[in-house]
Amino acid sequence: MHVVKSAVFIKSSADAKDCPDCSVPEYAFTGRSNIGKSSLINMLTNRKNLAKASSAPGKTRLINHFLINDSWYLVDLPGYGYAKTSKKERKGFGKLIEQYLKEAANMVCLFLLIDSRHSPQPADVAFIQWLGVNQVPFVIVFTKIDKLSSQQLNKNVSRYREELHKTWETLPKIFYTSSIKRKGAEDILDFIDKTNKTLS
Ligand code: GTP
Ligand code: MG
Q: Residue 42: CB within 6 Å of ligand 1?
C-alpha cells in the first residue's frame, strides 16, 4: 500500500504562472465549495490540518502545492460555484482553475470531488463538460458517503452515470470516500502510486 510518509507545504500561488516549476507529477483536487476537499486532503496525507494550515482565510482562493514523499505534488485548487461570492469573483475562481488546468504541464490527473448525497448538479455537469472540451484527464471522487445508505448511494451514482453517458462514451474512474469514516484513501493513493509508476 502507498503510504504518505512526508507531506510538505511548498507554496500558494495566485496565478498559474507562479506555480512551482518542477518535474514531479501533479495530482490536483477541486470541487464545489464545502465538498469536503480539505477533509479529504487531510485524510489522504494522514495529517489533521495540512489543507487548512496552508489555506488560512484568504488563501483558500489560491493554488496550493504540497510535496508528497518527495515524489509528487498534491495540488489543492480553489473550489468553484462558491455561493457567497459575487458573480465577478466566481468567474475569477473559475479562471484560476481553468488557467492552471490548461497550463500545468505536469498535471497528470484531476480529482473532481462530488457530493454523493445529491443528484447531478448543473455546476458539476458544466465543469465536467469543460474538462472534456479541454481534454483534462480526470477521475471522480464521491465524497461524504457515510451520510447515505448504500442504496441511496447507488441511486445517486447511477444518476450521475446516466447524465455523463449523454456525452461520454467511457466514464472516468470513480472513487468513493468518507473522511469521517476514513474510507477510500487507500484506493486513491494506490491509484496515484500506480500512475506514478507508469510515468517513471
Ligand atoms: P471549503 O474549503 O470551505 O470550500 O470546504 P471543503 O471542500 O474544504 O470542505 P471541508 O473539508 O472543510 O468540509 C466541509 C464540511 O463537510 C465540514 O463540516 C466537514 O466536517 C464535512 N465533511 C467533510 N468530509 C466529510 C465526510 O466524509 N463525511 C461527513 N459526514 N462530513 C464531511
Ligand atoms: Mg477547504
A: no
